[in-house]
Fold this sequence. Notes:
alpha+beta; 2 domains; four-stranded antiparallel sheet; 4 helices; 4 strands; about 10% strand; DUF4124 domain-containing protein; coiled coil
Amino acid sequence: xxxxxxxxxxxxxxxxxxxxxxxxxxxxxxxxxxxxxxxxxxxxxxxxxxxxxxxxxxxxxxxxxxxxxxxxxxxxxxxxxxxxxxxxxxxxxxxxxxxxxxxxxxxxxxxxxxxxxxxxxxxxxxxxxxxxxxxxxxxxxxxxxxxxxxxxxxxxxxxxxxxxxxxxxxxxxxxxxxxxxxxxxxxxxxxxxxxxxxxxxxxxxxxxxxxxxxxxxxxx
Length: 220
């Protein structure tokens, strides 16, 4: 139990020094000295882990005190500082990622016209798919009508239908259901295309505007 406590104290001291290094300016070259919890005076050329919980004196080559460091933050303060640092790093990463995406977007669409053309082409592709789906649905309707004539021969009594006809009717109905689902998906695709390009446009407009002064200066 005592060993675990010592290990935990040592780890906390290491974390404290790491946080202290982050939260304070870089240490100047000097001699660090302190008296640890056991009363032992320690001297080193860098911040002393054993004295992370207390003040440390920084001496010059002649032994004259230059400054004092610490004590390090408490465990709660260290946790808060580390959490703050993590949040700052995450924010920096998000900013960098957004800049990367903006650069890619601006390379793909350097002008409003190129973005409008891309939107139009995407909608044309969806419309072509819709036309094919509608044509297929018309074919299935014609097939269903032919089968309906055969059904009338049996008085629309499905119990009297031969297996061939029963299977054919079921296949057509299944195919029609699939086509309806596909057409619904294509209608939703049109909305998604507009939503995507509208979002891109909102992001691109300030990027285009930021390039206008540079473009004007280059043309003069």
